[in-house]
Amino acid sequence: MKSGFVVGDCLRVLKATPGESFQACITSPPYWGLRDYGVEGQIGAEPTVDAYLEQLVNVFREVRRTLKKNGTLWLNIGDSYTSGGRTWRDADKKNPARGMNYRAATPKGLKPKDLIGVPWKLAFALQADGWYLRSDIIWSKPNPQPESVKDRPTRAHEYVFLFSKSERYFYDADAVKEPAVDGRTKRSRRTVWTIQSEPLREAHFATFPPKLVEPCVLASTRRGEVVLDPFFGAGTVGVVAASLGRVYFGVELNEDYADIARRRLER
Q1: What is the pLDDT of residues 202-256, one digit of tens each?
Q2: Spelled out in words, what is the top-level CATH class assigned to the domain 20-210?
């Protein structure tokens, strides 16, 4: 397989892909209720969080089918709060992408201002669907998105979940060792990764930072093996995979993001 990506619906593309095509999947799907991408069929704009989870379970079921038996999934996902009955949200100068002309209703059983717990809801849904949930990794952000709230701490982390297709799978622990406290030796990588978020001027939103993708690629693949990203976005997984001698395959629904990815990969 040669590196490349296609523009289209990831579920349809994956269903047409032969089984056991990829060694690893590294991806960050759209978060629920946080951004309007303005594209028909977008994931993340479902009226309920349960419908969102069902959509992603269906996608990742096909991901599991197309992974090698010893393959892994690295899934970055963020959380959100209930809308409190609001039906829209203004953009602002610092974050134009936050503007939305829809807001989902407060999920059943929750209250206005509740933290929804989307990452763990999704992790447990995938676990129930057959994935092995192997690790929860905290992506700690030294430069989090500013928030105007005054009655809770500013969010400065997201989750990266490591799933495997089988009980035994490929994981290169030596490739991702980190400096020990003494600075002279190395130790097994821990589950808190402190990595700055990186805005991409062309896209007006913070993208999957390359330094977050790199250890996932190194731990889960060898040179020449294929990395999948079904939510390709601006193409960061492809950029990192290519730089490390891996093959990448991506799927992206949004034509505008596909154009950004194309330019980045050409550079």
Answers
A1: 765 567 899 999 999 999 999 999 999 999 999 999 999 999 999 999 999 999 9
A2: alpha beta
Task: For residue 74, give the amino acid letter.
Answer: W
Could you read off the pLDDT of 160-174 as tens digits, one per residue?
999 999 999 999 999
Distance CA(215)–CA(179), nearest Å, equals 14
The ranges assigned to domains in the chain are 20-210
